[in-house]
Amino acid sequence: MRHRSFFFITTAITAGALTLSACGSRDDSGSGDGGGTTVVIGLDAPLTGDLSALGQGIKNSADLAVKTANKNKEVDGVTFKLEALDDVAQASTGQQNATKLVSNNDVMGVVGPLNSDVGQSMQKVFANANLVQVSPANTNPELTQGKDWQSGKKVRGFKTYFRTSTTDAIQGPFAAQYMYNEKKLKKVYVIDDKKTYGAGLAATFAQEFKKLGGKVVGSDHINPDDKDFSSVASKVAATDAELVYYGGEYPAGAPLASQIKNAGAKIPTIGGDALFSAEYINLAKANAEGDFASSVGAPLETLDTAKKFIADYKSAGYKDAFEAYGGYSYDSTWAIIQAVKAVVEKNDGKLPESKDAREQITAAMQDVSFDGVSGKVGFDEFGDTTNKQLSLYEVKNGKHVAVTSGEFEG
Question: What is the pTM of this model?
Fold first, then answer.
């Protein structure tokens, strides 16, 4: 979105072979493989609050990756554990969580967060500690390409930051092309929540829509903590807009779209991956019909690579759905596991001191490549995913239904 991970070690002597780690602790708890190195993977996401549906899906999917790695003994002599922290979708809390994770020398990698503004608040904290971070959901281009990315001056600010979700640089234009070319809608009212993710996404949509020949007939900002959007809804209804584009998340996006329709503007609301949730439909109810949401990647149910993940997730009995970012969270976690594996193999079955281990894992992440749940997983020179696939969904009969999928043609 947006917008849209950790470990220790021990000494084990078996069959005359010595495996030694300078950082960590012995696992004598009877969990995992019953001994050897314990690697803790940290996770940060909104586990409570309005966005908890997405956050819980991220946490559960990371948990599944950890359990799968342990079951399959993915890294010889290593047992993985997950430590999840709740950022309640607040940048300040995310930064505090980052500081907490960094201070624990057993932490070697972090999955998350969900929100781009939260991710932005964590980047420098992790970079200063050489602690790798892989987000399954941050989509604001600035996080990897710098504040001047739109001018073509792309600069990577943090070598420790990676993401498995593609960016708003293509997500907004992807939706604009579909609405203009396929739906033949020419006039849009653009609204955003003034946050890093929402404002950036709305800007990329508007820019592409105008480039195609469309017209922005009005624009506005809302406070996402509000629930009464009648003033903005009335403004939209007073124009000849044929659609609304909303840059923001579903807790505000759903009531906003509903109130716009109730004000008399029977037009669709379109948004990004932060609207792609069953909770959007639960909140907007019948007024969600005909609305659209773009999302990163292809629909998981269409991918052969995702079939096992979907089946295993169901078998694991998680009470919450994996939601929009489950596959990307699994892949983010697996990427950290593969980076750990590379470092362990490079160092003859052991990890170096904590500081060196973190640095080596970050370096290894740049070369990670595997067939993941979401497709081929790998990272470019900015730490962005090399998978540029996107999808667009329409609410039909109370469910999000994929209407198009592919790579953005810029």
Answer: 0.85
